[in-house]
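Researcher: Structure prediction, please.
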Amino acid sequence: MPQAPRKPCRKPNCGVLTHTTYCEKHTVQNEEVKKEEVKRYDNSRGTSASRGYSYKWSKASALYRKNNPLCVMCQKQGVLKINNCVDHIVPVNGPDDPLFWVESNWQGLCTSCHSRKTALEDGAMGNAKRLNRRL
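Model: Predicted structure follows.
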């Protein structure tokens, strides 16, 4: 079967013809840029301990996960999946926030659901930062 015709690289002012979106040179550059963006984001967040997730939180979240073992978001879609994260439903700003230790503001999520929700709230992966606070 014949191959599809090659198209110009999508990088502005690059005329190299390719079968993919970018030529080989610009594919590597785009991957490096994405890695730098992820690294910058991770560094700006700080460590979990610096954000208030201490030993006390580890114990409380482990107990919560034991008593509420399923991912809430997956359950809503009819899928039974074990949770491995305790998420704050309404985002908090560390342990000094009045909602940090309120159990009714907690929900068990699997890693993929928690990552998706956090990326939307924190502005990661190209999303606008939106910290919806309701007190």
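Model: Residues 55-122 form one domain.
Researcher: Thanks, that helps.
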